[in-house]
Amino acid sequence: MSDLEASAPAPRRGRPGYDRDQILGVAVEVFIELGYDATSVAALAERLGLSKSALYHHFASKEELLSVALDEALGALEGVLRESGASRATAGERLGYVLERAVRVLVEKLPYVTLLLRVRGNSDVERRALERRRAFDHEVTGLVRAAQTEGSVRADIDASVATRLIFGMVNSIVEWYRPAGSESAADLASDVMTVALDGLRTR
Amino acid sequence: MSDLEASAPAPRRGRPGYDRDQILGVAVEVFIELGYDATSVAALAERLGLSKSALYHHFASKEELLSVALDEALGALEGVLRESGASRATAGERLGYVLERAVRVLVEKLPYVTLLLRVRGNSDVERRALERRRAFDHEVTGLVRAAQTEGSVRADIDASVATRLIFGMVNSIVEWYRPAGSESAADLASDVMTVALDGLRTR
DNA sequence: GTCTATAAAGAGATAGAC
DNA sequence: GTCTATCTCTTTATAGAC
Does residue B16 approach strand C to less than 7 Å at its CB? Predict the structure, then answer.
């Protein structure tokens, strides 16, 4: 987001020599494996091959790691909503765009979004993240409601319930999808769109 | 499960006088609010209005509370699968039964299932629970595959992916559904079946 | 940018009285 | 069935040297 030059493939020095992004990436991995609360700073340092003090040199606290990671995920999701407005005429089209792009953000930022989806509001940092998630969901619900009025989405289910069910499906992807497997992000997005729009039943 | 007589509405004595079930119920509430790892035994005792020692009189450890709670959820889900076999001819019918009953178990045992769905395998107790969840998912995937062969479920999506998407949707219910609200469990189950089988799109 | 050493608080669990 | 007091270990975080 705020990087003006650093799009290079990251130096990767001999052994230590970590920068903030590299440390953040490893920390998020460990947070996901053990859970944020169950992850001690000692465990993070060990995984990095660093002492705790070296880690505290880069981040002021365990919570700052969490905060920066959550911001990465939220920024990307909010970006999808921002882009959906321009040059799309109907609510149905905008909703389709948001769904498909949200799946891709989930895959591209898998660890960050995974962490976001596990946050429960246990601290100020977590509560602020939940607030931004709620705002996102609220905007999508508005899109679903508009699509119902328009006639492109079935109106016999409450917009809020429909949104929650569909995004429940989308978000659950972080529980099992691994980019290494046989299914590409494009296949996955296509499957999600099919099930969400047309369901499982044969016709 | 092993209660031979105690189906009475629970005594509810003057102030303390807790039994295991009452303590378990409160503990599960707190585990969900704060997360299991972030919940200290002191916090549990405080919520119960008891000392830590009184709590340890009922349960040998914090982990025993978790273990009993997870068993409650898993037992109910496994029961759904057990019942689905008898007297239903096609895989499509069995799958429909499992979906609808799973939603109802989620609602009836909401706190226990919520806790189950947040387990990440951080200890032997958690890993055993995950193993049982995997076995459940595997059986449902088999049902989906049979329904595809039969022709009642669309075959252009991998059975494993379809199962994960649909159960992702079902499981996400624990994130937002509250029995007190306007939507009954029957309405919810009906909405889930509609979206899962026919999708959001109008026709 | 990294280290060792340590402070200060909180964790899970137990002893033993009532 | 509940209590107070305490043990021991681990936690987050800091001090200060290299």
Answer: no
